[in-house]
Amino acid sequence: MIAPVILHLMRHGEPVLTGRLLGHGDVPATLAGIAACATAAASLVGTTAIVTSDLSRAAACAEAAGETLRLPVRIDPRWRELDFGDWDGWAASDLDPDALARFWDDPDAHPPPGGERWGVLVQRVGAALAEVRDETLVVTHAGAMRAALAAACGFDARQVWAVGLPYAAVLTLSLWHEGDRVTGQLRALRP
């Protein structure tokens, strides 16, 4: 059997605005959030590469992880959060509850107004997964991490919403590349 590629997905540290759908909004991480990611990275001995979303709340945390692990950081915008469109920056409590419920129930059929469909996020993250090398750390967002679970492990939207991903959490996957197809298995989740 072919050995799997080990991938570590880290959620960025706490942003300066919490409790909101941040999406593509470029909201920075707090200093404490950045420090939490550097601390979490210290346990990832053996990491060979670091990749990050281009949004500053992830990129700053990736830079801190890179300093901890003494590795350069490469930016890949495919690891961005879901685009929440008109909902970007809003608290869920300030949105139409029926529209939000329809989105959570079926994010492909009911994407945020002006935003991205769930399937598009899963597709772009799936394309990024196909290029991941062994022992890579990707610093990204909760939505992209959930999309990786959908793309690699076959989880549906309801299943991925059930996975709690606190700030600076690390989700580790085993991935098998079969041509252009990637299959995966959840190895660990460390909050």
Task: Explain the overall architecture.
This protein has a six-stranded mixed beta sheet, sandwiched between helices. It is built from six helices and six strands. It has one domain: Phosphoglycerate mutase-like (Rossmann fold, 3-Layer(aba) Sandwich), CATH 3.40.50. The protein has 191 residues and is of the alpha/beta class.
Summarize the structure.
By secondary structure, the chain is of the alpha/beta class. Helix content is 34%, strand content 20%.
CATH C-level category: Alpha Beta
How would you describe the shape? globular
The rounded distance between the terminal residues' Cα atoms is 31 Å
Number of domains: 1
Strand order of the largest sheet: 3-2-4-1-5-6
Work out the strand percent: 15-25%
What are the main properties of this structure?
single chain, 191 residues, Rossmann fold, 6 helices, globular
Topology:
Layout: E1 5-11, H1 31-42, E2 49-52, H2 56-69, E3 73-75, H3 97-105, H4 118-129, E4 136-140, H5 142-153, H6 157-161, E5 170-178, E6 181-190
Parallel strand pairs: 1-4, 2-3, 2-4
Antiparallel strand pairs: 1-5, 5-6
Helix pairs in contact: 1-2, 4-5
